[in-house]
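Input record, target 12 of the design panel.
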């Protein structure tokens, strides 16, 4: 009986996902769909280890917060990020998530008013307040070329960067686990 229990615990631990990669954005606003397209192609390629979960969050931040409640070591959000760079430029940024506990009562009320359709920052703030936020949070961002109007499809500049973004993610995951194994 004890041996069976230990084997079940080992299986449960090996099945646990350690890294969550989430594509966020709105495919109806041109390059804002970058994160969604990257995770779709990542899922098709299926080149990441089993300890990585890939999901599409879109514009529903609550879904991301719910998934984070399962416990992860690392979160990587993929999104269009405007940083005044060249269209298609890729950034790997460490997220700085504000603490809702430092807000005034009115700011907290405004924050909680409507959480159904929320931006990634608000979702991360809620996850932090609920103690679901992983210790390491990164954003793989792409400088958009077109995102101001409702229109389907990525710009050519952003579309061309998707293979590079996927390669960058795969390399990052490999390097992350090499560092853990060597420590």
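The sequence produced for target 12 reads:
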């Amino acid at each position: 009986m004890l041996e069976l229990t230990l084997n079940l615990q080992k299986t449960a631990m090996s099945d646990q996902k350690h890294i969550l990669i989430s594509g966020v954005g709105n495919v109806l606003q041109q390059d804002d769909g970058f994160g969604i397209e990257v995770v779709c192609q990542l899922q098709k390629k299926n080149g990441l280890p089993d300890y990585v979960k890939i999901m599409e969050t879109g514009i529903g931040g609550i879904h991301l917060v719910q998934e984070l409640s399962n416990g992860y070591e690392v979160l990587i959000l993929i999104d269009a990020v405007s940083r005044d760079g060249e269209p298609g430029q890729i950034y790997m940024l460490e997220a700085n998530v504000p603490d809702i506990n430092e807000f005034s009562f009115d700011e907290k009320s405004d924050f909680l008013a409507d959480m159904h359709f929320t931006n990634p920052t608000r979702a991360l703030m809620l996850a932090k307040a609920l103690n679901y936020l992983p210790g390491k949070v990164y954003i793989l961002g792409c400088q958009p070329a077109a995102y101001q109007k409702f229109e389907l499809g990525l710009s050519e500049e952003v579309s061309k960067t998707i293979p590079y973004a996927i390669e960058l993610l795969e390399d990052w995951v490999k390097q992350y686990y090499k560092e853990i194994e060597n420590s």
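The radius of gyration is 18 Å.
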